[in-house]
Amino acid sequence: VPVPVLEGDDLVEGGPAYEVMYLLDAEDDKVPPLRRVLGNLGDSLVVVGGDRLWKIHVHVDDVGAAIEAALDAGRPYRIEVTHFADQIARQRRPRKRSRAVIAATTGAGVAEVCRDLGADVLEFSRSRPLTIDQVVTALRDTGADEVVVLPNAQRHIGLFQSAASQLRHEDVRVAVIPTHAQVQGLAALAVHDAGREFDEDVVAMSSTAAHAQHGAVTIATEPGITMAGPCQAGDVLGVVSGDFAVVGVDVTAVAADVVDRLLTSSSELVTLVLGEGAPEGLADALSAGLRASRVDVDVEVIEGRQEHYPLFVAVE
Fold first, then answer.
1. What band does 191 get if pLDDT is binned at 50, 70 and 90?
2. For residue 14, what pLDDT is reported?
3. Nearest to 67 by CA among 44, 87, 38
4. CB count, 10 Å around CB of 133?
5. pLDDT score of 166
6. Measured CA distances, 314 to 204, 270, 273 (Å)
């Protein structure tokens, strides 16, 4: 969910002292009262989300009151507080940079979400693989001094690293974060902050991506041998951290197995990215199962519209 990044003259002395951001698990009817309370406490208020998952951003002087308001509305988590005095001091230093993020994406819905989160996208598919010339051109076309790259597939990591090496003599800083899956890229983008120093931003994005456990569901196109045993064309395959770990006949059952294998005792959020082949009711069935077994876990659903994979999954 995009949150405004404050740059230039947006941070001024005399305004609210703190930026507060958090995710909130709350019923829809609890959000309007929260919005009113936060609006009275400060400014630059952004409230986005739905279906019990909300992202809140506000500038305030009273951090405690902003968090107490969230507790009155529901369950806040991933709370981040930034003292603006530190950011103002950084802004007074000479600045020469601009930053871009490039994400390799498959699925129109995934691409749309990445754009909303501030990334330039390079769309690919099985029939339209990325080439190094295409990647180099995309890196140059950003016009940025600093570029963060999210390959979002194992086979892309070396490709993007090779492309990045061609730009180093052009005084462009390029960091390739080794994201192995689309959902890891989405997780990294969710914490991207162009207001941070480049290295700090890369570390934050890399850490978040690495901690996002990833899985998927696809359909076998031919007979083969997997880690879970033999499969036939048409079988449903569950992917866990890049390996075929489940073979079955029902998409929903295999998907539930994949989610269960990814969950840990510390998991807080499950993201379901639905593909073109997702059966009707898949997200509802998985959400219901999680509500029954893990009331402490929130579920976010994205219409990814990717081909060949009825489901991508991230667990954070």
1. very high
2. 61
3. 38
4. 10
5. 87
6. 17, 6, 8
162 assigned to some structural domain: yes
Task: Classify residue 181: in a domain, yes or no.
Answer: yes
The CATH code of the domain that includes 114 is 3.40.50.510
* 3 domain-assigned: no
Q: Check whether residue 132 and residue 191 sit in a common domain.
A: yes
Q: Is the pLDDT of residue 127 over 80?
A: yes
Round to whole Å and give the CA distance between 311 and 237: 11
Q: Which of 267, 256, 283, 254 is nearest to 315 (CA)?
A: 267
Q: Are 109 and 122 within one domain? A: yes
CA distance 56 to 231: 45
The pair phi, psi for residue 243, each rounded to 5°, is: -115, 145
Within the chain, how many helices (H) and strands (E) appear?
10, 16
Range of the domain at 48: 8-91
Check which CATH number belongs to the domain holding 56 and give it: 3.30.70.100
Span 155-185, pLDDT tens digits: 999 999 999 988 877 888 999 999 999 999 9
Give the whole-number percent of the chain exceeding pLDDT 90. 76
Residue 222 sits in a domain whose CATH number is: 3.30.1180
Q: Is the pLDDT of residue 106 over 50?
A: yes
